[in-house]
Amino acid sequence: KNQVEQSPQSLIILEGKNCTLQCNYTVSPFSNLRWYKQDTGRGPVSLTIMTFSENTKSNGRYTATLDADTKQSSLHITASQLSDSASYICVVSAKGSTLGRLYFGRGTQLTVWP
Amino acid sequence: DAMVIQNPRYQVTQFGKPVTLSCSQTLNHNVMYWYQQKSSQAPKLLFHYYDKDFNNEADTPDNFQSRRPNTSFCFLDIRSPGLGDAAMYLCATSRVLGTNTEAFFGQGTRLTVV
User: Fold this and answer.
1) What are the two backbone dihedrals, phi and then psi, of residue B81, each rounded to the nearest 5 degrees?
2) What one-character DSSP code corresponds to residue B43?
3) How does pLDDT run across B98-110, given as a tens digit for each residue?
4) Which one of B40, B51, B53, B110 would you mutate to disrupt binding with A, by most A Cβ within 10 Å of its Cβ?
């Protein structure tokens, strides 16, 4: 069964600190993995997208890693800011006959305190 | 500029009263998706269009219907909303292109059923 599991479910950190969010998946055949940021009451916004051959990808203070062998990904946020408070969703795409089918994790709710 | 636009952002409807949510895109993408997202849960795919081909998820209730009159627009019709249909409804688009299919989400429509 194609699944995406994220941990932790929620996380509270102080402003300026770093944190790492985890994503494990069983989606096969794998196409790509994305991390999205979803602010409360808004649609998800893409942070990174990684294919099978990519190990690391950065977008500003966000760095995503992918280990396709162990089917694990992480999102590292450095020097956190109050505006980083949001849900971070791991989404894995499967190769399909017609579509890049998307499988969503339940997200990690990050709260950054001043 | 917004590329996937959902209207309205907030919708209040009465129990059993039909309601239509709309989504438009300026990306000329082949694929359009409708997701239902309840509080603290991952988005759940309801259906998608690949061009004019409609693909319904097996567990999507018959109460939910969709129309795609042209490439740019897609509608979600809820024929008889129940209290359990209150959720955020997300529209997304993608263009199938190799393995790096990016999905773009709208801001969502928050549906309240009273």
Assistant:
1) -60, 135
2) -
3) 455 678 899 999 9
4) B40
CA distance A22 to A17: 17
Of A93, A105, A109, Cβ closest to residue B42: A105
Peptide bond before residue A8 is cis, with ω within 30 degrees of 0 = yes
Q: What are the pLDDT digits (tens) for B66-106? A: 999 999 999 999 999 999 999 999 999 988 744 556 788 99
3-state secondary structure of B111: strand
The β-bridge partners of A13 are: A112
Phi, psi of A82 (to 5 degrees): -55, -35
- As a whole number of angstroms, the distance between CA A27 and CA B54 comes to 23
**CA separation for the pair B91, B36 (Å, rounded):** 9
Burial of residue A110, with CB atoms counted within 10 A of its CB: 0-12 exposed, 13-18 middle, 19 or more buried: buried
Cβ-Cβ contacts under 8 Å, B6 against chain A: 43
Which chain A residue's Cα is nearest to B102? A49
Q: At A41, which amino acid appears?
A: G
